[in-house]
Design brief:
The chain has no helices and 13 strands. It is an all-beta fold. It has a 4-stranded antiparallel beta sheet, with no helix packed on it. A hairpin with an 8-residue loop joins strand 1 and strand 2. The mean pLDDT is 89.
């Protein structure tokens, strides 16, 4: 339940990484999954599969995980209750403008999507606005990501062949 923070002296080059620090999210999380940053670094999101909720944190300094107050957050509705019924939430992704929230879980083996007010986890409630079954190729999804233009969706999981790419036509 820690997030570790490295700085890269060369963009996208992990060999240029230097360790900066870590942040504990032991409270309120029992287990943390699916970390996600808002593109400008002013919000940090995490999923707790034990409590099946999405949490949003606001760092006092953009992109600085150590500046987050772990006891100050907003949270979504429970994802494991009807009509959502996902008891093992794992990964999340937000559209560039924050108005679409996507997540994958290992109970339903599907991508679920909600239309929300920009970057607002409290809008993740009730039945999803859309779903896509991925059970034919991944039955234990852990992560979801989209290409910058939204044409490709990537699903990473523990079963199947690793990372799967879906292309929108």
């Amino acid at each position: 339940d820690y997030v570790y923070y490295w700085s890269l002296s060369t963009a996208w080059d992990i060999s240029s990484a230097s360790y900066v620090g870590a942040k504990s999210f032991t409270a309120p999380h029992n287990t943390m999954r699916g970390p996600f940053w808002k593109p400008d670094g002013t919000k940090f999101f995490a999923i707790d599969p034990t409590y099946d909720s999405v949490y949003a944190y606001t760092p006092s300094t953009a992109w600085d995980i150590t500046s987050i107050n772990a006891s100050s957050y907003s949270t979504s509705a429970l994802l494991d209750v009807s009509p959502i019924s996902e008891g093992a939430a794992r990964g999340q992704f937000w559209s560039n403008d924050g108005t679409k929230f996507y997540y994958v879980g290992a109970t339903l083996d599907q991508v679920s999507m909600w239309n929300v007010s920009a970057w607002d986890v409290t809008g993740i409630t009730g039945a999803p606005d859309d779903t896509l079954s991925i059970s034919s190729f991944e039955t234990a999804p852990y992560t979801i990501c989209f290409s910058e233009n939204g044409k490709h969706m990537y699903i990473g999981g523990a079963v199947g062949d690793g990372v799967d790419q879906l292309t929108r036509t």
